[in-house]
């Protein structure tokens, strides 16, 4: 956990999708929780270019969501069964990786950032929403869910900069990730959920 005396000036949240078919978003907050940047990406190369060229990367703490891997499944029941199928040592063959829950997209680039001195960790966006009282009261990532999340961020957490028109789900989730990075920098308590591809996945206590 980052010490209370940490001196990061920027807190970066990256809501990462499992492929370039879906949008990813990045949010940068300052110490006063003011949104300095909110942008959307599709391709991995564009995200990596942000890492290399953004002035906010230095002196920052970064939180990156772990995307769920549903790219090899078709049909609603198959996608949901992937998340509930019990695993064990008896799985000798992982045919088409259908038991693989999480996507390893961008992991090498994130490890390179850490080697360069950037403080970075992963998170589960669903757990964070629950911890911040931003639970999905509607089907996740639907227009109603996004509208509810955006209104909650504006009213409950003071993000008055948010526009009246509805933002993409990834942009709203990136704000939540950046909030979590700021929380950790200020000495907030966390718990390690698991380690994924060399980086710790942290959670915030609920309540």
Structural description of this entry:
This protein is α/β, with parallel strands linked by helices. Strand 6 and strand 7 form a beta hairpin. The model is unreliable at about 1-5 (pLDDT under 50). Helices cover about 30% and strands about 20% of the residues. Strands 3-2-1-4-5-7-6 form a 7-stranded mixed sheet. The radius of gyration is 17 Å and the shape is globular.
Amino- and carboxy-terminal Cα gap: 19 Å
Structural class: alpha/beta
- Helical stretch count? 6
What is the spatial order of strands in the main beta sheet? 3-2-1-4-5-7-6
Mean pLDDT: 88
Low-pLDDT windows of residues: 1-5
Main sheet: strands, sense, barrel: 7 strands, mixed
Query: How much beta, percentage-wise?
Result: 15-25%
What is the helix fraction of residues, given as a range?
Answer: 25-40%
Overall geometry comes to globular
Radius of gyration using CA atoms only: 17 Å
Order of helices and strands: EEEHEHHEHHHEE
The total strand number stands at 7
């Amino acid at each position: 956990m980052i010490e209370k005396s940490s001196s990061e000036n920027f807190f970066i949240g990256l809501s990462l999708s499992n492929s370039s078919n879906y949008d990813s978003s990045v949010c940068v907050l300052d110490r006063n929780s003011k949104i300095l940047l909110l942008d959307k990406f599709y391709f991995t190369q564009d995200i990596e270019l942000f890492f290399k060229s953004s002035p906010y990367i230095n002196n920052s703490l970064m939180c990156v969501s772990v995307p769920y891997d549903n790219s090899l499944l078709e049909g609603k029941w198959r996608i949901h069964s992937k998340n509930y199928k019990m695993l064990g040592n008896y799985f000798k063959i992982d045919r088409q990786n259908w038991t693989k829950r999480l996507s390893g997209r961008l992991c090498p680039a994130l490890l390179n950032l850490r080697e360069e001195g950037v403080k970075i960790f992963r998170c589960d966006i669903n757990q964070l929403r629950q911890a911040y009282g931003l639970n999905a009261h509607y089907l996740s990532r639907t227009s109603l869910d996004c509208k509810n999340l955006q209104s909650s961020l504006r009213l409950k957490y003071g993000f008055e900069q948010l526009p009246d028109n509805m933002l993409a789900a990834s942009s709203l989730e990136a704000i939540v990730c950046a909030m979590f990075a700021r929380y950790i920098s200020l000495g907030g308590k966390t718990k390690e959920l698991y380690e994924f591809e060399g980086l710790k996945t942290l959670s915030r206590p609920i309540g």
